UniProtKB/TrEMBL annotation:
Keywords: Membrane, Transmembrane, Transmembrane helix. This is Uncharacterized membrane protein. It comes from the Bacteria. The keyword Membrane applies. The keyword Transit peptide does not apply.
């Protein structure tokens, strides 16, 4: 959106904070109207969706604003540090088997879903939905989306260099990626609100995650107190200071890898954002074994959640609902594709009696990446964010391979 009414970043940030304050305040209101309203509409969904409406209406511009850049480069890493250092990582480790199985199912749902979606699309509208020749061949663009939905934007960019779609086609793929992934994120966030009913259908025992959530709640309610001014500054120094250290190290690590071992680019190890997540996650883990973990008692997780919710709003701000009209044929493929992905992960979860938490976080770790997967996990409990981070980092590692295989399969069926 090039001609938004309000383009100054300070004004855009003000809009996002007003939305967050209004939603979270009314979500905790005792008034009957709000209590009934939020029984139907999850607060976190509104925090995500309302900025998207403002962007679509041209009130603000997600594309031209630096708010998301700041949120993803500074607030997200700091949030991860503050949230991870305050949890019991031994309990998190117990969840690894279910998380790993759902991660495999989520990636598989994308890899097999792409070619199946093409086959179904060709049957529904032969010669209309997919086609093209040379650099305009649909499979070239869809292959980049496959990499994004099994890894992230860095994987999508990598497969762009492999499949070489035309600029016009790739632009449409970016719109498809953003639109479908945003709708899927909204669906998963809404499902958090209905997790008990979903878990009943999945026949899932949610005792492990529920126990961790309860542990987190008990820590908050029993041991917590308001931080003093020096203590709050200490919390900010730990979160943002460690983030600054990560950026400093990235400036040394990435150029060194490019010079010494450029072949590691195939594993995305020359991607700065991947290293930002790896380093800040590592810092959070290390701090959890020190006295810094005691900062959770005075509100470090609250600060981390504030940063995370600003990120959620800034992600929503980049959504433009009208993009659906840019490539209507391939958008149909996208909806069929994500539906197949959904069928696969729900069937696997039901077969192995795995809770909705693992399903939702593993799916978003594939389709969205660290920021949105963390947002989904936070919808369950901030104590569970480390699981989302771990799965997302795994996605970055396999995204290029999964995207390439899926692209080749789609070329074969096109």
């Amino acid at each position: 959106m090039n001609n938004a009414i309000f383009e100054q970043d300070a004004v855009v940030l003000a809009f996002l904070l007003i939305i967050l304050a209004a939603v979270l305040y009314t979500a905790n209101s005792p008034l009957p109207f709000f209590r009934k309203f939020y029984q139907v509409v999850p607060p976190i969904l509104l925090c995500y969706f309302l900025p998207g409406i403002l962007n679509t209406a041209g009130v603000i511009s997600g594309d031209n604003s630096a708010v998301y850049t700041v949120a993803s480069q500074f607030l997200l890493p700091a949030s991860l540090i503050l949230l991870i250092m305050g949890v019991d990582l031994k309990e998190i480790w117990k969840l690894r088997k279910k998380a790993g199985l759902m991660f495999i199912a989520a990636a598989l749902g994308i890899v097999i879903g792409g070619p199946l979606a093409v086959i179904i699309g060709k049957a529904l509208l032969p010669g209309v939905i997919v086609g093209g020749e040379g650099e305009d061949a649909s499979w070239r663009g869809l292959g980049t989306v496959a990499a994004s939905w099994t890894g992230g934007s860095a994987n999508m960019a990598a497969m762009y260099e492999v499949f070489k779609p035309s600029a016009r086609l790739y632009s449409g793929m970016i719109a498809l990626d953003v639109l479908i992934s945003n709708i899927w994120l909204a669906t998963l966030l809404y499902g958090v609100h209905k997790k008990k009913k979903i878990n009943q259908w999945l026949r899932a025992d949610d005792g492990d995650t529920a126990g961790l959530e309860q542990q987190f709640k008990n820590t908050n309610t029993v041991e917590r107190r308001m931080a003093t001014m020096p203590e709050m500054m200490l919390i900010l120094a730990v979160g943002l200071g460690a983030t600054g250290l990560a950026h400093l190290l990235i400036g040394k690590i990435v150029p060194w890898i490019k010079a010494v071992a450029p072949q590691l680019a195939r594993f995305n190890l020359t991607n700065e954002f991947l290293w930002l997540i790896i380093l800040t996650t590592t810092f959070g883990v290390l701090l959890s074994f020190t006295r810094a973990r005691n900062l959770e008692r005075i509100g470090s997780t609250t600060v981390g959640n504030v940063f995370l919710y600003i990120l959620i709003a800034s992600i929503g701000m980049k959504m433009n609902i009208l993009n659906v009209f840019d490539t209507p044929g391939l958008i149909v493929i996208g909806f069929i594709w994500i539906a197949i992905h959904a069928v696969v992960i729900f069937l696997v979860a039901r077969m192995f009696k795995i809770s909705y938490f693992f399903l939702a976080v593993a799916s978003e770790a594939s389709v969205g990446g660290v920021p949105t997967a963390s947002a989904v996990a936070a919808g369950f409990s901030p104590a569970l964010v480390p699981v989302a981070v771990l799965l997302s980092v795994m996605g970055y590692a396999v995204g290029n391979y999964a995207g390439y295989i899926c692209g080749m399969l789609m070329q074969w069926v096109c």
